[in-house]
Write a structure and sequence with these properties.
The chain has about 240 residues and is α/β, with parallel strands linked by helices. Helix content is about 50%, strand content about 15%. The structure holds acetoacetyl-coenzyme A. Acetoacetyl-coenzyme A (CAA) binds next to helix 5 and helix 7. Pfam families: adh_short_C2.
Length: about 240
């Protein structure tokens, strides 16, 4: 039977490239999005991929959203936890809300999505989770205590859930992208970004498709022996 994949934040940026890559592999894809109905509609019309709106940071919304995907497309076999936000600022200027929102969405979203789907995968004896971390979760980044902590948390979450999933045929892996040419990175002040790119050995920003290729591999049948790993795709910025 055709496998069903959910990609959170799957209608834009890296998420869009992942949704397209999984569709190309023959999976039925549901692209989750948080708020931009217009962009999501345009994405669905352009790609033929169904989009579903819910906030991954909201526990009940995840349970309901995943149930809606299962009703329309079938049981969920693959989850790519890609949805994430930034609220950058030095600690002195960072509000509790900036901290909390990033933790709630970036890290809480992984927990919520796993709670909604892990049990079904366990019963069917097959599953794939790919959690999108970040080079900044591995190396830290000035002005990102919230984001770096959440992304670092994703790497720990991945290794813990991988141990629980292994005996049920569920693999759990992370990808740690570097700086990729998306809207999120475009929001970094130009002079700051210039300095960051100067330190990337490959000498450029990554492309969303280069992250999606890694996700596609980890979601494949052939990757069944890969679990608890982190694949760094960062142009050599941080070799870890
Ligand atoms: N290391 C040391 N010092 C630094 C620094 C760094 N990396 N970056 C800035 N500083 C210093 C500056 O030199 C400056 O020092 P002085 O006051 O002595 O001149 C001081 O910190 C303040 O810098 P800013 O003027 O930049 O401060 P700001 O308050 O206007 O902005 C900031 C701070 C919001 C953190 C801004 O620097 C910024 O946006 N930085 C980029 C953060 C970043 O890389 N975010 C990644 C987003 S993309 C993403 O997250 C995707 C992914 O997974 C990779």
């Amino acid at each position: 039977m055709t496998k069903v994949a959910i990609v959170t934040g799957g209608t834009r940026g890296i998420g869009e490239a992942i949704s397209l890559a999984l569709k190309k592999m023959g999976y039925v894809v549901a692209a989750n999005y948080a708020g931009n109905d217009e962009k999501a509609r345009a994405f669905s019309e352009r790609t033929g991929i169904d989009s579903f709106r819910w906030d991954v940071g909201d526990h009940q919304a995840c349970l309901d959203g995943c149930a809606a995907v299962a009703d329309r497309l079938g049981s969920v076999d693959i989850v790519v936890n890609n949805a994430g936000i930034t609220r950058d600022g030095v600690l002195a200027k960072m509000s509790f809300d900036d901290w909390n929102e990033v933790m709630r969405i970036n890290l809480g979203g992984c927990f919520n999505m796993a709670k909604a789907t892990f049990d079904g995968m366990r019963q069917r004896g097959w599953g794939r989770f790919v959690n999108i971390g970040s080079v900044n979760g591995q190396a830290g980044q000035y002005g990102q205590v919230n984001y770096a902590a959440a992304k670092s948390g994703i790497h720990g979450f991945t290794k813990a859930l991988a141990q629980e999933g292994a005996k049920y045929g569920i693999t759990v892996n992370a990808i740690a992208p570097g700086y990729v040419d998306t809207d999120m990175v475009a929001a970094v002040p130009a002079q700051v970004l210039e300095k960051i790119v100067a330190k990337i050995p490959v000498g450029r920003l990554g492309h969303a498709g280069e992250i999606a290729r890694g996700v596609a591999f980890l979601c494949s049948e052939e990757a069944g022996f890969v679990t608890g790993s982190t694949m760094s795709i960062n142009g050599g910025q941080h070799m870890y």
